[in-house]
């Protein structure tokens, strides 16, 4: 059933997974006081109970927002992913319920690139094993299998925001960079795109994965691909756990085909810090294992908190959906002294004319109208000079194919 907006004190916001305080502060400064801020993710049933009266939810990579959760979240107006990946959200289910999803596409990219570069050096020097031995009272002073990074070839699979940053940092250290991407991209510095993943695997001393979780990237690195890699090369995965067949990687490390690996993301990750981490890579001393912390630096988290809360506030106050990952993107001007209505509907012919008919029948004069559509959904924003009456709102809710309507307070804050 379509809904209209509430005043800010009644807008309930649920933030999960230890989202940075910067998000809370930003929301409070914007007048949103009804905030629940939890440090953990929630299991599906607890989440379903909690989201029933929530208008905005903020999550990171662990919380699964599936169709069942969306079905329970009747009041949910927008989702903020305080991270880059949005594979944990059923974006289609959100869209067809008229819910835009936002993320932070840039704020933690540098943190991931720095970690990968550090791991490259650590693995080229065999540090995980040497450090473990020293902790055990051993002394592995040897140059065997220890290499400088200078002059080695780094192969980056997925040359997006993270891959390109890694490319720049690595070249400054003297690595030669090649990359493979499904899109033709201009290389940073002297980095060169190669024509196939096979070519990259055959040429690189270190392979680092920076692709999103997509049907086309699932298990893209397994036995067959590892066989193409150079003897004694290194694999790094800080993208998604679904990209590497982990048992097959474990076999390649045990057999000595690969010199080492650094893995930050896993097919199955603990739901919280209290749950045991189970992996076939445990106990292998040529592997750096990290608990999905590629983007977990204070700098990145603070920036993400600000960036995503800003997007939620802007959508809530103004209706702007720019940078939403699933929704028609509309950039809206401020609306002083105007009443603004957001109408989200199935993208089928005739809805807009029906909306305009209702407005005209209710003697409502349009002062601004903004429309954007994608294949499934239409999003029209209508500014008018006088308040929408209850009768007009009711009629607009009942326009066929309506998914949701929201009447926004204008900046001068007159009644909705
Ligand atoms: N470990 C962590 O804490 C973090 C992990 N990530 C993961 O890293 C991924 C990449 O992040 P960004 O670089 O910001 O994303 P991006 O969207 O900027 O870049 C991804 C690149 O992969 C390419 N690509 C897509 N499918 C491909 C395929 N089959 N083969 C080769 N290239 C392909 C795209 O064309 C694009 O250039 C995110 O989707 C996220 O899953 C992101 C941040 C933190
Ligand atoms: O820090 C997080 O919670 C997730 C980081 C990540 O994987 C992402 O940004 O996609």
Automatic annotation (TrEMBL):
UniProt cross-references to PROSITE patterns, sorted A to Z: ACT, D_2_HYDROXYACID_DH_1, D_2_HYDROXYACID_DH_2
Keyword NAD: yes or no?
Answer: yes
Q: Name one GO biological process term.
A: L-serine biosynthetic process
Q: What GO molecular function annotations does the UniProt record carry, in alphabetical order? A: (S)-2-hydroxyglutarate dehydrogenase activity; NAD binding; phosphoglycerate dehydrogenase activity
Question: Per the record, what are the reactions this protein catalyses?
Answer: (R)-2-hydroxyglutarate + NAD(+) = 2-oxoglutarate + NADH + H(+); (2R)-3-phosphoglycerate + NAD(+) = 3-phosphooxypyruvate + NADH + H(+)
EC numbers listed for it are 1.1.1.399, 1.1.1.95
- What are the UniProt keywords, alphabetically? NAD, Oxidoreductase
Q: Which domain of life is it from?
A: Bacteria
Start and end residues of each ACT domain: 340-410
Please name the pathway: Amino-acid biosynthesis; L-serine biosynthesis; L-serine from 3-phospho-D-glycerate: step 1/3
The answer to whether the entry has keyword Oxidoreductase is: yes
Q: Name one Pfam family in it.
A: 2-Hacid_dh_C
Q: What class of enzyme is it?
A: oxidoreductase
Described function: Catalyzes the reversible oxidation of 3-phospho-D-glycerate to 3-phosphonooxypyruvate, the first step of the phosphorylated L-serine biosynthesis pathway. Also catalyzes the reversible oxidation of 2-hydroxyglutarate to 2-oxoglutarate.
Q: What protein name is recorded for this chain? A: D-3-phosphoglycerate dehydrogenase
């Amino acid at each position: 059933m379509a809904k209209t907006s509430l005043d800010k004190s009644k807008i309930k916001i649920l933030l999960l997974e230890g989202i940075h305080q910067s998000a809370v502060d930003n929301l409070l400064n914007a007048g949103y006081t009804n905030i629940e801020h939890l440090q953990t993710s929630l299991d599906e049933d607890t989440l379903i109970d909690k989201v029933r009266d929530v208008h905005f939810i903020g999550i990171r990579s662990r919380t699964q927002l599936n169709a069942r959760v969306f079905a329970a979240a009747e009041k949910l107006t927008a989702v903020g992913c305080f991270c880059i990946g949005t594979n944990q959200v059923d974006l289609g289910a959100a869209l067809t319920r008229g819910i835009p999803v936002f993320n932070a596409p840039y704020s933690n990219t540098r943190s991931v690139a720095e970690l990968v570069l550090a791991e490259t050096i650590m693995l080229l020097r065999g540090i995980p094993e040497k450090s473990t031995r020293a902790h055990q009272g051993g002394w592995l002073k040897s140059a065997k299998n220890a290499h400088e990074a200078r002059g080695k070839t780094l192969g980056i699979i997925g040359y997006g925001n993270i891959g390109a940053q890694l490319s720049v940092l690595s070249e400054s250290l003297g690595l030669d960079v090649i990359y493979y991407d499904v899109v033709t991209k201009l290389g940073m510095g002297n980095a060169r795109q190669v024509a196939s993943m096979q070519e990259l695997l055959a040429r690189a001393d270190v392979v680092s994965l920076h692709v999103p979780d997509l049907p086309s990237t699932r298990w893209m690195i397994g036995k067959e691909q590892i066989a193409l890699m150079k003897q004694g090369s290194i694999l790094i995965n800080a993208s998604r756990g679904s990209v590497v067949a982990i048992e097959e990687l474990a076999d390649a490390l045990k057999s000595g085909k690969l010199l080492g690996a650094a893995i930050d993301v896993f097919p199955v990750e603990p739901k919280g810090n209290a749950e045991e981490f189970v992996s076939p890579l445990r106990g292998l001393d040529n592997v750096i294992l990290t608990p999905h912390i590629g983007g977990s630096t204070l700098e990145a988290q603070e920036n993400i908190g600000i960036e995503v809360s800003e997007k939620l506030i802007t959508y809530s106050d103004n209706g702007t959906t720019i940078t939403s990952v699933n929704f028609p993107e509309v950039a809206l001007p401020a609306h002083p002294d105007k009443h603004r209505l957001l109408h989200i509907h199935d993208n089928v012919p005739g809805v807009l004319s029906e909306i305009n008919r209702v407005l005209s029948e209710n003697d409502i004069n349009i002062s601004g109208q903004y429309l954007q559509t994608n294949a499934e959904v239409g999003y029209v924003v209508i500014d008018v000079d006088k308040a929408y009456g209850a009768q007009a709102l009711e009629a607009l809710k009942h326009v066929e194919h309506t998914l949701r309507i929201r009447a926004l307070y204008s900046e001068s804050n007159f009644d909705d």
